[in-house]
Amino acid sequence: xxxxxxxxxxxxxxxxxxxxxxxxxxxxxxxxxxxxxxxxxxxxxxxxxxxxxxxxxxxxxxxxxxxxxxxxxxxxxxxxxxxxxxxxxxxxxxxxxxxxxxxxxxxxxxxxxxxxxxxxxxxxxxxxxxxxxxxxxxxxxxxxxxxxxxxxxxxxxxxxxxxxxxxxxxxxxxxxxxxxxxxxxxxxxxxxxxxxxxxxxxxxxxxxxxxxxxxxxxxxxxxxxxxxxxxxxxxxxxxxxxxxxxxxxxxxxxxxxxxxxxxxxxxxxxxxxxxxxxxxxxxxxxxxxxxxxxxxxxxxxxxxxxxxxxxxxxxxxxxxxxxxxxxxxxxxxxxxxxxxxxxxxxxxxxxxxxxxxxxxxxxxxxxxxxxxxxxxxxxxxxxxxxxxxxxxxxxxxxxxxxxxxxxxxxxxxxxxxxxxxxxxxxxxxxxxxxxxxxx
Length: 439
Ligand SMILES: Cc1cc2nc3c(=O)[nH]c(=O)nc-3n(C[C@H](O)[C@H](O)[C@H](O)COP(=O)(O)OP(=O)(O)OC[C@H]3O[C@@H](n4cnc5c(N)ncnc54)[C@H](O)[C@@H]3O)c2cc1C
What we know:
This protein is of the alpha/beta class.
């Protein structure tokens, strides 16, 4: 049946951006000569940091290569998720029980922080504690859920609920899964409205946001016994006492030490036309954030205006017009394999973005070459990038360092997978497919 799908007529556009009524206007004025802190990148991480710094009275300048919020922060699935990507036993084996408890607690606090910011700043981004479900693609995946939930309860006191296949209808209108695991703590939001609201909040607090200001070089300067940084950008040069690198998967040659640790991975999303209420309730009766148990996974949800938004790592290439178009077809077939009910539903939007993975699949934050940085949020960045941004601002303001991810080993990516060497990314895709076949 799926071999004869009619061609799609759709917009190669990010659906979320269409929902932002009056996007933030960055400043037209020239760059100041000096700032307390220059933040590189205007996504959740950079903007959460700038907001927190400005609220404490520091002169924070954000330099963004494209438009404000242009990166992954306006393009993602809007899933505000608990937990870390790796299984708990792997984490405990690597980092020890105590540190992993702090990491898990941080993942829960990060959702609370997003909720707090949304409330404090009155950001109209449809934040909702709707919970998420992971659906099992294989019986063996489902069989592992009970032990995983018990471990998470024992180690972190966090409750997950197992859903047997016969009860799945209450959670999802799809027949293809073997069961699921529900986490009620996770949330959803409209990512583009959230990043726009965060930017406006940072600006209101006194931060200066510059778009079309690509940082091309950062040089440490030592004058009269104190250290400064000189930042060159396409909008001019500025000096700062401290730097925060919040450039995510788009980190470039201006910061080579960070760049070589990041593996950029393309991910793509389609959104359908608006669905009738009865159909959308059938597909997702509790309006959860949903992702499946594969490495090469699908993630999907309803939008607040009842579209099915369906994403996946459809191809391991950075987004270009071609990869975006090919991904639409691949994702549509994926969506129909989950929800055959959508056969006659139009796909109206497709877009792509780039995620920042690290070799150890962990987020990292701290200092590199004397500059603050945070990266490696993978598919958890809505909450994690916000949290890291606020934490880095706290460190600059003299708060104690309680970031459990700081100081853990941060391996460089193998040469072919590094940011800037994306020709090798199909290999990463092949690797995930092999893992899915064998696990
Ligand atoms: C398709 C997709 C779906 C996703 N789904 C989810 C999800 O559902 N839930 C979730 O939690 N996470 C998800 N993620 C991940 C999440 O979006 C990211 O982890 C998060 O947005 C990262 O925020 P950030 O601020 O670190 O980086 P970004 O938002 O990527 O911002 C970095 C910015 O830095 C700028 N920049 C880079 N280099 C320079 C330079 N030299 N000078 C100036 N500016 C520079 C870039 O232009 C960019 O705008 C998804 C990501 C993608 C791509």
